[in-house]
Amino acid sequence: KSVAGLRISYLARTGGIRKDDLIEPYHDRVRESVRKTLDDKTARQRHRRLATALGQTADGRQKPELWVTHLEAAGKPLEAARCAADAGGSLPLRQRVVFLDQCQFHE
User: Fold this and answer.
1) pLDDT, tens digit, 9 for 90 and up, residues 21-74
2) DSSP of 85-99
3) In this structure, how many other beta carbons lie within 10 angstroms of the beta carbon of residue 71?
4) What is the pLDDT of residue 107?
5) How many Cα atoms within 13 Å fall on the side-chain side of residue 74?
6) Residue 21 to residue 53: CA distance in whole angstroms
7) pLDDT at 39
8) Of 4, 35, 52, 84, which is most buried by a Cβ count within 10 Å?
9) Is 105 a residue whose pLDDT tops 70?
10) What's the rounded Cα separation, in Å, for the pair 46 and 79?
11) What's the DSSP call for residue 1?
């Protein structure tokens, strides 16, 4: 019943109807649904926790665009700008420019 509800709500798709079939969530829809339930302060706290966790893992440091996104959403534009600057060429130029501009604004 739970899986059917997720499918009907367009939050997940499945490879079939058997119990061992793959269930694949639609991450964007799940994220939007969860975000609608959070007030701004709670959302910033969650982003801060995610950014902290990403900053402490090699995987997180290898995906600076994800780390930068969570820092920015946590209300930490200066840290986001520093992360973007440290990322060097791994972030798209437009994103680096935006965050570097913010860094100069906050200094």
Assistant:
1) 777 777 788 888 888 899 999 999 999 999 999 888 887 777 777 888 889 899
2) HHHGGGS-HHHHHHH
3) 27
4) 47
5) 21
6) 31
7) 95
8) 84
9) no
10) 16
11) -
Contact 29/11 with Cβ under 8 angstroms? Answer: yes
C-alpha span between 68 and 82 (Å, rounded): 9
Give CA–CA dist 14/24, Å, rounded.
Answer: 6
Rounded CA gap, 62 and 57, in Å?
9
Distance linking the first and last C-alpha atoms of the chain: 54
Distance between CA atoms of 43 and 37, rounded to whole angstroms?
Answer: 9
CA dist 43 and 70 (Å) reads: 10
Query: Which residue has 């499918």 as its token pair?
Result: 7
Poorest-confidence range of 26-40, 73-87, 89-103? 89-103
Helix and strand totals (H; E) in the chain: 7, 2
